[in-house]
Amino acid sequence: MGQSLRVLILVPHLGGGGAERVATLVAEGLSKEKYEVHLGLVTEGNRKLEILPPPVTIHRLGARRVRSGAIPLVRLVRRIRPDVVLSGAAHLNFLVLLLRPMFPKKTRILIRQDATVSSVLAFGNVPWYTSLLYRSLYRRADHIICQSRAMADDLARELRLGKERIAVLPNPVDLEAIRAAAAAPGQAPACWLGPGPHLLAVGRLAREKGFDLLLEALVTVRERFPRTEMIIAGAGPEEAALKAQCRSLGLEEAVRLPGYVQRPYIFYAGASLFVLSSRYEGLPNALLEAAAGGLPIVATPASGGIVELLRNRKKSWLTPEVSAASLASTLLKALDDLSTSQRNRRSFSPAKVPEA
Predict the structure, then answer these.
(1) Using the 8-state DSSP alphabet, how is residue 43 labeled?
(2) How far is the C-alpha of 325 from the C-alpha of 30, rounded, in Å?
(3) Which of 306, 308, 268 is nearest to 285 (CA)?
(4) Cα(112)–Cα(145) distance, integer angstroms
(5) Local structure of residue 69 (DSSP, 8 states)
């Protein structure tokens, strides 16, 4: 048997979001006979390590921020001399590619693009020089991994890169764990409280995820389905603002924000709909996991990849546009359809309209 290929997977930290979850699934899934797997945690190394198998070697760089991890990262790469470095978050990608001249010459660099580049540049509230970083640094990568053909075409067009440098590879999902959780009612740490309908949203609590739009839409939905409740699982900078919005809209009893949940599919049992309300996206893990779990889905057309995934999928509804009104009308359409189906017949029903 030949020598194992040494792979260094880099993430800012564990327990943060989709990029970190992808990294851990890749680390778990690579053959231990063919690969020697290392996981580098740039800014944090003490969370959620129980999900990793023992053969994975973990390196904690101890930087306060990603950009201050340059020297420890160079030292790590020179010490373990990986054949391949895989990075999966945009700001970390920039750092890795900037440092590439300091790595051993035979080191190959793969980067994973986690959002649609044109949307990030247009709507992501990023520094003015971000487009320059994309166009100058991404050319240093051996390959760029995108989650959908639409993302790959967008990246090639925006950065003027040859498509032979770009690979389309959807994010991995843990099918067995997802389906087991979906079939196990009552296992969630915060169970559904009423008859429903029950809406589930998952993601970082940040503006691009559109949870503020979803809360506005929920007010309209509850006029027709007054027992509607919603869980938004995630953590992020908009948490305080979203809680304040819940209070101002009178949704405190209807909405729960349990914070970051490592495996949000524990909420699938009993969920009526998974909702993706993003303003812009790539192809998020939360959506792939919901589809793998068989949940009905309402989503905004936040990327070409989302449209590709859901266009012909049964029990999926795409909103015409990204807005609270469009979300509300599509949610009502989905709930009306589902309220007559066998799956949901006993779980919820619309409010009765008084006779004239």
Answers:
(1) S
(2) 44
(3) 306
(4) 5
(5) G
**Per-residue pLDDT tens over the stretch 218-260:** 999 999 999 999 999 998 899 999 999 999 999 999 999 998 8
The answer to whether 5-168 and 176-339 have equal CATH topology is: yes
The pLDDT confidence band at residue 351, using thresholds 50, 70 and 90, is low
CA distance 249 to 77: 51
How sure is the predictor about 319, in pLDDT bands with cuts at 50, 70 and 90?
very high
CA angle 6, 47, 263 (to 5 degrees): 95
**CATH class of residue range 176-339:** alpha beta
Q: Which residue has the tokens 């029950």?
A: 198
**Beta strands 84-87 and 5-11, pairing class:** parallel
Query: What are the residue ranges spanned by the domains of the chain?
Result: 5-168, 176-339
Residue 343: predicted pLDDT = 45
| pTM of the predicted protein model | 0.82
d(CA 332, CA 334): 5
Residue type, 7: V
Query: Is the predicted pLDDT of residue 342 greater than 60, yes or no?
Result: no
> Which residue matches tokens 């087991």?
180
The yes/no answer on whether domain 5-168 falls in CATH 3.40.50.2000 is: yes
Residue 166: pLDDT above 80?
A: yes
- Report the Cα 327 to chain-centroid distance in Å: 20
Q: Where are the alpha helices (DSSP H) in the chain?
A: 18-29, 70-80, 90-99, 117-123, 130-137, 149-159, 175-182, 211-224, 239-248, 285-292, 304-310, 324-339
The rounded distance, in Å, linking the Cα atoms of 26 and 31 is 10
What DSSP state is assigned to residue 144? Answer: E
What's the average model confidence in pLDDT over 156-176?
A: 88
